[in-house]
Amino acid sequence: MAAALFVFGTLVQAQERAPILVLPFENKTREADYHWVGEACALFLSDLLAQMGEPVVSPDDRRAVYEQLRLPEGLVVTRASALLVAEQLGAERLLVGTYQVSGPKGQERLALTARVIHVSEVRLLTNELAVGAPLQDLPSLLGVLVGEVLGERLSAAARQDARSRAAMLPVSVLELFAKARMAADPQVALQLLRRAEQAAKGTVYAPLLLELGRTYVQQRQCADAVPYLHRLGPESSAYKEAQFYLGICAIQQGEWDRALDIYRTLGRAWPLAEVFNNLAVAELHRGQMDAAMSNLSRAIERSDTDPDIRFNYGYAFWKRGDFENAIAALRQVVRWRATDGEAHYLLGKSLQRLGREEDAQGALTLARRYLPQFAEWEKVADPPISPRLKMRISRRSERAPRTLAARVSMMPPSEAVREAEALADVGREEEALAILEGVLKRAPDFAEAHLLKARLYFRRGNWREAADAAHAAAFWNPQWAPAHLLLARLYLAVGERERARLSVERALALDPNNAEARELARSLSVSPRKP
After folding, report:
1. Could you write out the three-class secondary structure of 295-336?
2. Are residues 420 and 341 in the same domain?
3. H or E element, residue 117
């Protein structure tokens, strides 16, 4: 393997045990055939780091935040968005990189670069690492990279061990696994996972076995799931998560004592909200109400806005006949999830039991709308309502995210504006505006902050605030065409065509090739002229 290594700086001692997030590497080649490499880097590096005892943000949690922020899973995000994702996940270190593939099919070579960023201080913790090898040696290459990321904390023997273990995995397994994770169709994903398992030829790759087991569990095919999950023993970094899914299988198969044993043991070692929730579900079935209420309280402490856990809390109060507390819990559920027919139904029935008929009818009207089984449930004395299992886990509650304000206040103005842009792109405009106000207090002449502020207010239709900010941007940087162009659009929005025309002329004078300005000029019958 040919590799050119730049010397890594020593990681700050205080950050050695801070959570690390690995994002998909950016495809500099831009060829779609190799998009899987970026995801494979993120998946395999996360697993290797976890094997070495590093606190790693799960790729599942990364995917969940991408969905929350409406970032496409295959998208290579901007640096500002990457930092936002890391902050949401409570990661203090961020591993990012790029790759290029060259050469003919079957003989490709891969060049990787990577760096580690300190999230809250927005600075590099390492110099850049560059490595290269044949594409078929990708697992070995990532084994080398992990050793460099951890630096002097690993002995030479530990580095060699990491590389040797990584090299045991065929690159075809990594390719198929990454493609399965990227697949939109669950059936296509399952086919790719099966092919990956065949290509592994007996090699234990824990994330693949876990993904196979989990996929079958979520399709309620526990007979297929259990053999994969049992292959992940206590020595595996995926053992606890495998136990979580084995607990689900025990519940789905009616093995309640087995489920209780699994989740009680798991709760002591891995006190996550989802673990306590599923333990409480088993306890509710066994009639162990006090234990169930206690574990639901522990789940809520760790995830107090999860509507399913809160539903179970309301359900438990309802079963105990404590209708006041049931109502309080269920009102929270329908506030967060307005289409939850079961929650509306239980809320209505609890209100009825307290004689609050008018409120009850309002809740039951919504239950009738959102609950397909409403008519059937009304015919029986004991409707078949069940507490809700958590089918996936999230470790995000283990990490306390650093506040956005604390991190942004340490950024240079240009970085902070990019952070605000990333927030605005995902609909968090109030937070974006708060950042811009903070920037302008520190740097009132920073035209980029004024212009982004103007654009956000323009988007909202707040013409006066937008105009004030756009004028400020043009004042502090009078040679900046985008400021004058935004002023033109503002003038048009309020019917001042002549002032709009003058602003477009100014924008074209500064940037004659600006396509947006030319299009606006045509609509205003403005001819470009020299500055």
Report:
1. HHHHHHHHCCCCHHHHHHHHHHHHHHCCHHHHHHHHHHHHHH
2. no
3. strand 109-118
Nearest to 416 by CA among 389, 387, 441, 388: 441
Question: What's the CATH code of the domain at 161?
Answer: 3.40.50.10610
22 contacts 142 by C-beta, under 8 angstroms? no
Instruction: Note whether 484 and 431 are same-domain residues.
Output: no
Query: Each residue of 316-348: pLDDT tens digit?
Result: 999 999 999 999 999 999 988 889 999 999 999
The residue range of the domain holding 527 is 478-531
pLDDT digits (tens, 9 = 90+) for 410-442: 567 887 887 788 777 656 788 888 888 888 888
pTM of the model as a whole: 0.69
CA-CA-CA-CA torsion sign (131, 113, 19, 165): negative
Q: Are 290 and 372 found together in one domain?
A: yes
**Mean pLDDT for the stretch of residues 459-485:** 88
User: Residue 169 in contact with residue 139, Cβ under 8 Å?
Assistant: yes
Of the three residues 428, 449, 469, the one that is the final residue of a domain is: 469
Distances (CA, A) of 34 to 6, 39, 193, 436, 438: 25, 10, 18, 38, 42
CA distance 82 to 78: 6
Q: Is 161 a member of any domain?
A: yes
Confidence grade of residue 401 (pLDDT, cut at 50, 70, 90): very low
Question: In this structure, is residue 114 part of a structural domain?
Answer: yes
**Residue 331 corresponds to which tokens in the numbers above?**
């009102």
Which CATH number do you get for residue 427? 1.25.40
Residues 451 and 322 occupy one common structural domain: no
Pairing of strands 129-134, 109-118: antiparallel
Q: What local confidence, expressed as pLDDT, does residue 72 receive?
A: 66
* Burial (CB count <10 Å: 0-12, 13-18, 19+), residue 375: exposed
- Structural domain total, the chain: 4
pLDDT, tens only, 342-388: 999 999 999 999 999 999 999 999 999 999 999 999 998 888 999 99
Out of 33-42, 48-57, 148-157, 227-236, pick the least confident: 148-157
151 and 17 in a common domain: yes
Q: Would residue 237 count as lying in a domain?
A: no
pLDDT of residue 290: 93
